[in-house]
Design a protein that fits this description.
mainly alpha, rod-shaped, about 90% helix
Length: about 170
């Protein structure tokens, strides 16, 4: 993009913008990772609780003396499991809401800097483009002037040669 820059160097504005973007992406990634970790812990706790409840319920059901007692114990197990799922749903909602707040806060903290660096980079690109355009225009003007000057010299000499040739033909 910048023809006068060495191939491995970045403009300061671009470097600043890339650093701002990288910082934003890094912090956002940390927030997402933390949320994923919390979500995994929540799933694991639910699975452990449900397995423990299931194991306990199975033991009770195996010890039932008759069908009535079996049905009574099975019905009694429905309510605690339902409560566990309700708690899980509430914790999940809270976790997602907190993650949303954290990601919005991260964006609010980083977007002003990212916007500022993007504007600075765009300004630099515009300035460099204007400079390169001016240089190219100047080179074109010089080429046109050289071609015009060469054409006038050749035209003046060509005009004399043509008059000599027409004099010789007569």
């Amino acid at each position: 993009m910048f023809t006068n820059s060495p191939p491995h160097s970045l403009s300061p504005a671009l470097k600043s913008h890339l650093e701002a973007q990288c910082n934003f992406a890094t912090e956002l990634s940390h927030k997402l990772f933390d949320t994923a970790q919390q979500l995994s812990e929540l799933h694991l706790r639910l699975a452990q609780d449900l397995l423990q409840e299931c194991s306990s319920a199975s033991q009770q059901l195996l010890c039932a003396r008759d069908t009535g007692e079996f049905m009574s114990l099975a019905a009694a197990q429905l309510q605690p499991n339902s409560n566990k799922l309700q708690q899980y749903r509430q914790q999940l909602g809270k976790l997602v809401a907190n993650a949303n707040v954290e990601m919005n806060r991260t964006a609010e903290n980083h977007l002003p800097e990212a916007s500022r660096t993007a504007v600075a980079f765009a300004d630099e690109v515009m300035r460099k483009t204007a400079e390169e355009t001016e240089k190219a225009t100047q080179r074109q003007r010089e080429m046109i002037e050289k071609m015009h000057a060469t054409g006038q010299r050749d035209g003046a000499g060509h005009g004399r040669d043509t008059s000599r040739q027409s004099d010789q033909a007569h």
